[in-house]
């Protein structure tokens, strides 16, 4: 009944999709079947962000707390409450070592291992988005000023390696490609950029086809496509080896805006939005 703010796709066969809404509901869907169940949490708090890997979920609401919980079927175990000292703005799990999580807060980032806060790192810029590499070796942190700061992760500390400038608005989302050769970022000024991880140069530019802020983005499993979702109600899909002008656009995907986006396979995209709906789209590259 509320804005579906986050989506996560698990690597099960068939694919399991988790969607979470502002009112604290987590729904489990099975690709090709549809609705499966509601996950019953013992702590039914509001949800702003959700991240999931295998059978573990981390959620954040509108206070300083994260909730980390394991689930099996449609039952959730006891939730562990983690106070990170500030309202979380973004959560990123290192998918190859999911006990490691990076949480963005206004003044910096918090690193978690399991349910333990191992470091709180203050930064000299206002943080708006973050992502951690699947193996936990690198982190990218986006700022209110539109800059992307790349850090190497050593133990529980960060060392800045580079600062990338291309965005003209606050960074709203950052995601690594599944093969970790690229990452993509989106901003509040409606632009998305694909970057090469090795050279740190722009790989795909002129992704300026939304008319409002970018809320979410997702990569296809083969790393050949990236999709962006926006407040303008549209989803735009780009093929990495083609110019941005050859994009595919799904107009009016969600009334009120697109807030969640994920690929379930190379030719299927699942989206969610302000209209309280979850939709699956078949992608036919041109």
UniProtKB/TrEMBL annotation:
Keyword Thylakoid: no
Keywords for the protein's UniProt record, in alphabetical order: Repeat, WD repeat
Listed InterPro entries: WD40/YVTN_repeat-like_dom_sf, WD40_repeat_dom_sf, WD40_rpt
Residue stretches in coiled coil: none
GO biological process, one term: actin filament depolymerization
Entry's Gene Ontology molecular function annotations: actin filament binding
Gene3D superfamilies: YVTN repeat-like/Quinoprotein amine dehydrogenase
GO CC terms of this entry: cortical actin cytoskeleton
WD repeats: 164-196, 207-248, 251-286
Protein name: Uncharacterized protein
Native source species: Salix udensis
């Amino acid at each position: 009944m509320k804005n579906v703010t986050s989506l996560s796709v698990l690597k099960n066969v068939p694919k399991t999709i988790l969607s979470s809404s502002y009112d604290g509901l987590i729904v489990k869907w099975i690709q090709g079947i549809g609705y499966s169940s509601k996950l019953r949490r013992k702590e039914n708090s509001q949800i702003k962000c959700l991240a999931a890997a295998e059978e573990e979920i981390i959620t954040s609401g509108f206070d300083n707390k994260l909730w980390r919980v394991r689930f099996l079927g449609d039952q959730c175990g006891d939730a562990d409450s983690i106070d990170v000292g500030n309202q979380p703005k973004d959560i990123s799990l290192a998918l190859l070592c999911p006990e490691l999580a990076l949480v963005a807060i206004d003044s910096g980032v918090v690193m978690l291992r399991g349910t333990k806060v191992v470091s709180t790192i203050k930064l000299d810029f206002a943080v708006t988005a973050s992502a951690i590499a699947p193996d936990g070796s690198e982190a990218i942190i986006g700022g209110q000023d539109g800059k992307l700061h790349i850090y190497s992760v050593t133990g529980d500390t960060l060392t800045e390696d580079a600062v990338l400038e291309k965005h003209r608005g606050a960074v709203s989302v950052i995601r690594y490609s599944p093969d970790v050769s690229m990452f993509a970022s989106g901003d509040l000024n409606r632009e998305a950029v694909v970057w090469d991880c090795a050279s740190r140069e722009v790989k795909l530019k002129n992704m300026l086809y939304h008319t409002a802020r970018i809320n979410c983005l997702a990569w296809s499993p083969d790393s050949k496509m990236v999709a962006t979702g926006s407040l303008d109600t549209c989803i735009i899909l780009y093929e990495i080896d083609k110019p941005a002008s050859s994009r595919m656009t799904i107009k009016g995907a969600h009334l009120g805006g697109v807030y969640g986006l994920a690929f379930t396979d190379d030719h299927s995209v699942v989206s969610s939005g302000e209209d309280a709906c979850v939709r699956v789209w078949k992608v036919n590259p041109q």
